[in-house]
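hey so i finally got around to running the thing on that chain from the lab meeting. sorry it took forever, my laptop kept dying and i had to restart like 3 times. anyway pasting the input first so we r on the same page abt which one it is
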Amino acid sequence: MQLIHVAAVALNQTPLDWPGNASNIRSAIDLSREKGVSIVCLPELSITGYGCEDAFLSADVQRRAQQTLEEIIPNTKNLIVSVGLPVMHSGALYNCVAVIADRGLLGFVAKSHLAGDGIHYEPRWFKPWPRNYTGEVNIEGQSYPIGNIMFDFSGVRIGFEICEDAWAANRPGGALGLEAVDFILNPSGSHFAFGKQEVRRRLVLESSRAFGVTYVYANLLGNEAGRVIYDGSTLIASGGRMVIEGPRLSFEDMVVTTACVDVDVTRMNRARLSSFQPGIGDSRVQRVESQFEFPTVDPQPKTFQVATWETGPDVKEEEFSRAVALGLFDYLRKSRAGGF
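ok and heres what got predicted. didnt touch it at all, straight out
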């Protein structure tokens, strides 16, 4: 039995609010540590905020994002933390996740599939990372891998799908499954829509079953800037079973949803799948190895209860009233207006 405590974190961020965003991230990391967590998944582009729009292309925004990352790193003692930010590489900008372990930066996972439909315009600012390629990015004279990579922490393997990556036909999870990863983390910036939570549940459950992993989903929260609302969905599933689901549409700055999973059970269930064929000798994902000592974790109750309104007959009306209230509240406080 190898129990590992993992957290999916929803954050209410504001584009370009460097001190505020950094403070939320540090507070979420500290709260996760207090809860005994070892792996922390923060949402997509949580350092800058998702809604920076054309400001993403500003050199100053990229520098400030890097500086904020460097400020966060010392807070990650005894933790594995993933945090989102834009990264410039070879003259192009990429939507990335920085992976930190015990106060050390290990590398960057870059998004392969960009959201460019509906309200999303990611291709305007970012480039999709080419599959099966790994580059290097230099920060303060130190080189770090960037691209399609996974991480091996003393035998515990972690891979990533960044939001839209998970919704594509040729998704990274397929290659990660062949690499026998134990966890797939999905940092997301997924806007609120009626009925979308049920679609997410199906995605997370089926991903955890098909790939034989623990799947961790962490979304942004609140009205970042303007009219787009994020519901702060946090989901953790393992082997086709929902382990825990956090509250949505919270008025808090953050929601930290944690679960304790048994990696040995996940591996056993995957090995029993006749459909699982390891990609021996045909690896498409570069592996970054790091020594990390996971603490001993006591077993926890495996039951959880979703909020009553989430399963009631009036869920659409409940979503509407809660989303509008949260959106207006954030608009009021973030714009510093005296009213509407």
